[in-house]
Design brief:
The protein is an alpha/beta fold. The chain has two domains: 256 residues, TIM Barrel; 42 residues, no CATH class. It contains 16 helices and seven strands. The strands form two sheets. It has a five-stranded parallel beta sheet with strand order 2-3-4-5-6. Strands 1-7 form a two-stranded parallel ribbon. Strand 4, helix 9 and strand 5 form a beta-alpha-beta unit. Helix 4 packs parallel to helix 12 and helix 6 crosses helix 8. The longest helix has 16 residues. The chain is globular, with a radius of gyration of 21 Å.
């Protein structure tokens, strides 16, 4: 059976991406803090594969290669006299192999990742183009399904990257990390969106902030209602966030995440046996209790400690 591609899946309903690789690997001791370069795909492949599998089990439709900052200029950037252990070709090929292993476990798509390069700032567009071109060449024979550019904050740089991505003849996703003020040069958000679309990209977007799993439910629903079909995460997004997105969009996807038998949304069956009977009735009916919580906020803002239902007793 031929695997459905990204554009076909988007035409049929929401597509759930995966989340952060660098931050999770750094938290677990497998990436250089501050540098976040991806040597782990060669030095600690089992750790990278485990993170991929956690996203697959959480319900992601996409496995993105662990190739953030996997260009030769970034691998050498800030190393001083240290020898660069691996080339960008070595890392990108190893990352593709790991992504394929994880993707095969649940019919997921494989996305090759691109990220900003120091060359753009230090040497200009043509130097950056060479780095993007080398990374594209590494993906050319790796049987990936589409490509993603992420974490860019300069519209000019992502335009250069998109030109090299197009040479792969694959669907293109472009994402920028910009706020209300626009990109690093002050280009308005609306103008960045239009310019990204004009590159021929199939999907464009902005990276969301880190959030709780309950906020991820709300984010997924609001994004889908606003017309967003590809929903995933970036820095700080962990498997439980992706699981919340997959759970929230289950009716539209007509697909439960693999973890559904073990971890149900909002606690699932747990509350049928909870001692807080008044609470469980409300949760099972609407889930509003969870949506109204302000985690770690304390009194008087946390409804869980400040506004108990009349007659409820806490020990």
């Amino acid at each position: 059976m031929v695997k459905k591609g990204l554009l076909q899946r988007l035409s049929e309903g929401p597509v759930v991406g995966d989340g952060s690789m660098c931050f999770l690997l750094e938290k677990r001791g497998y990436a250089k803090s501050g540098m976040f370069t991806p040597e782990a795909v060669i030095d600690y492949p089992e750790a990278v594969l485990q993170v991929h599998r956690e996203y697959v089990r959480s319900g992601a439709d996409v496995v993105q290669t662990a190739t953030f900052y996997a260009t030769d200029d970034k691998l050498a950037y800030g190393t001083g006299k240290e020898k660069v252990a691996y080339s960008s070709v070595d890392i990108n090929k190893a990352a593709c192999e790991l992504a394929r292993k994880a993707a095969s476990e649940n019919d997921c798509l494989i996305a090759g990742g691109f990220s900003p390069v120091p060359s753009f700032r230090d040497e200009g567009e043509e130097a950056a183009r060479k780095e993007f071109s080398k990374q594209a060449d590494a993906y050319r024979n790796e049987s990936i399904d589409f490509v993603i550019a992420e974490f860019f904050h300069d519209i000019r740089e992502i335009e250069v990257c998109a030109e090299e991505m197009r040479k792969l003849n694959l669907p293109i996703v472009l994402c920028m990390r910009i706020g209300p003020g626009g990109d690093v040069n002050g280009t308005a958000v609306e103008d960045c969106a239009l310019r990204m679309a004009k590159t021929g990209a199939d999907v464009i977007g902005l990276d969301p902030r880190i959030m709780t799993r309950i906020e991820a439910h709300r984010f997924a629903r609001q994004a889908w209602d606003a017309g967003v079909s590809y929903i995933g995460g970036c820095c700080g997004f962990e498997p439980h966030h992706i699981r919340s997105i997959a759970e929230e969009l289950e009716p539209e996807r007509k697909l439960n995440p693999p973890v559904h038998d073990m971890a149900r949304a909002f606690g699932g069956e747990f509350f049928k046996n909870s001692l807080t009977s008044e609470l469980r009735k409300e949760v099972l009916r609407t889930g509003d209790y969870w949506y109204s919580m302000n985690p770690a906020s304390g009194r008087p803002f946390s409804s869980s400690v400040s506004k108990p239902k009349t007659g409820m007793k806490f020990q």
